[in-house]
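Issue 218. Parser rejects a valid record. Input:
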Amino acid sequence: MTTLAPVETVPAAELVENALERAEHAEPTHTDAELLLHARGDQLDRLLSVAGRLRDRGLQTAGRPGVITYSRKVFIPLTHLCQDRCHYCIFVQSPGKLQKAGKAPYLEAHEILDIARQGAALGCKEALFTLGDRPENRWPVAREWLDAHGYESTLDYVAAMSLLVLQETGLLPHLNPGVMTFAELQRLKPAAPSMGMMLETTATRLWSEKGGAHYGSPDKDPAVRLRVIEEAGQLQIPFTTGVLFGIGESYAERVDALIALRASSARWGHVQEVIVQNFRAKESTAMMQTGDLDTEEYAAAVAVARLVLGPDARLQVPPNLTDATELSLLVRAGIDDWGGVSPLTPDHVNPERPWPEIDELARLTAASGYTLRERLTAHPHFVRAGTPWIDETVLPAVLALADEQGLALEGMRPVGGGAAVPVGGAELAGGAELAGGAKLARRELGLRPTESSASHPSTAPSPMAAVLARAEANPTGLSDGEYAVLLGATGDELEALAQLADGLRREAHGETLSFVVNRNIDSSLVREQARATAAVSGGGLGLTDLDELVAEAVALGASEICMQGPVHPELGAHGYEDLARRVTAGRAGLHLHAFRPAEIADGAARAGLSLDDFVAALVDAGVGSVPGTGARILDDDIRATLSGGPGRDLTVARYLDVVTAAHRGGLRSTATMVYGHIETAAQLVGHLRTLARLHDETGGFTEFIAMPFVPASAPDAPPHLAARGPNTRKTRAVHAVSRLMLAGRIDHIQAAWTKLSPAERDAVLRGGADDLGGVLLDGTLNPAAGPEAGLELSRDEVERVGTALGRSVWQRTTLYGRAVAGAGVA
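Output the parser choked on:
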């Protein structure tokens, strides 16, 4: 049981008002800061205004008025092992869980470089190393791995990998390895331009008392963490730190933490940014029942942080931990930095909270009256100052990526291969031990000794252009990392990617556009009762209604009935087969495309049959193919998040077992993917790879359908995903990369027109897609009987789309035979 926060006594409104009056003119006292944390409603608005003006004054002094910054980065989770036991953390894993997932205790050097190179190709400039604290102190498997690889400690490995990434990719490392000694900080300084460690809280009771959020975590003693922050200042290390609010601390303890950080920064001048992070509860943790920090309470805390820390502090909030619609509140509260945002990797500490697209973050920032600018991992004043703040080992790499203000050269990319960003030659400053660790890793990877070059990133060829050139030569032969890079294409490179994909579409299908005439029926609505309860709002469809709906669809020219949805239990153990027989009886020319993998698994369980036997029963009942919907992303963590928790969706293994059984039994299927929620580029590529491998084994997929995430279709997903969904850039890139990866295997790519705008539909049809899918006849008897009621295409509309694309339109069957010409839609 986790200790709850003390109940705060709400002060009289007059006391808060008086504190606001004083805050207009002076730095708040401890007492006033506590009072201001209670500001709500009109008083909160006034507090935000005071904090916002203070921030604006600081930006003016810094020489960048109206600018809010961010760092474009990749996250490298060096190890998920840790000696601590924080009660809210899902980043940390046990050795058993890692082994079950097929993961080693630490990322290997080649895995680290693969992530870094992908990030560099996407224009990232920072590599944030995230890891648990000293796992070798708790887990023998960590000690064994380090010994086997020749490293004395996890921090030795951090240093070696930091230098390796710097040398080979030009990315600037930011190290976040937890508690360090003075000597360790000193030894790590030549390996990275900045470091960081969250203070989180000064509330010692949360560490020392049973039930506290940090109880059982040796490195979360506030005194120890304050010592690290102090020693980083003594060593003149640009240092990121911050507070975590909502884990059980009192309002007074919140102020204590902020004042402690202000005092350390005043002594040494090294605190480059303070993160004010809001607690978000995680499933399967001791604090899963603890409520998230309220938005107004959080905004007040951010504003008070600005007042306590002053105008010249850089104040950061993570943009993924607040709903997009509320980010403007935090801008008003005085923040001036969004922190690291990755176009490639997830927030490994909060994987359920996806990063906003950078162009969307720029739009939201602009809507609040500010300009978004990219910075480096070391903040601009440290970049301009150079040594001794930034070690001479890494300073050349920093300056190569910096503009005259010390901000990032936007649009520039670090150059990979260790040959374009100078790192000081073969003999690296900072000691032979660190350099030796990097050299050891280089030897293991078969790399040449460290080289240097004075080439500037702006004169180097674009890594994206290089990947595109390789894709043109061999579109199906790229590495997973290269396909992930292509998913980040923008501007002219996105146009080039789309043209390449469209060329493959043309080679496979010519200038044609296919469609099928079908009707959707929601099988979950069907009951035994007849017409008396037929209205959907009144309880479902009777069997007689089902007969009439199918007959109407056939009369309108449909060649396919698409039927999805779990069959109601009242239809009995063989309800799925019985419905299939009812739809197909006496209709030899009608194709039944029915029952998703989750429903096949359900039907097999109800009937007490194996998957193979149940598929055989469906075939015997008239099912001709199955929809592959429900694939989401083939990653168990994502599936659990989108479905509301573990066990509420088929696991990846079970999903693949069902689809394999369907293919083995003679039922072909569509292949699908839902994108635009919390997935990363690597997970998208992994999904496509899995589908390709399965098709190689079974040959069972007819087409691939990439479906943008629509929050309304995932009612069990966390509320913060309500505003998610891909933008047009991502939609185009996903369809184009899908064409490249699946070419020669799954040759039909469908535009999911019901989930795309007309402009997006046309864009993907010009960028790799060749099929419009079904026209979804509604009919007149009961238009609401299908899950996509009200969405219908006419033959004339299909022809207009084809004409605009310069393609001839042809009507197909479900399995891509040619249907009777002209039949189908009115």
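Fixed in the parser; the record now loads. The mean pLDDT is 89.
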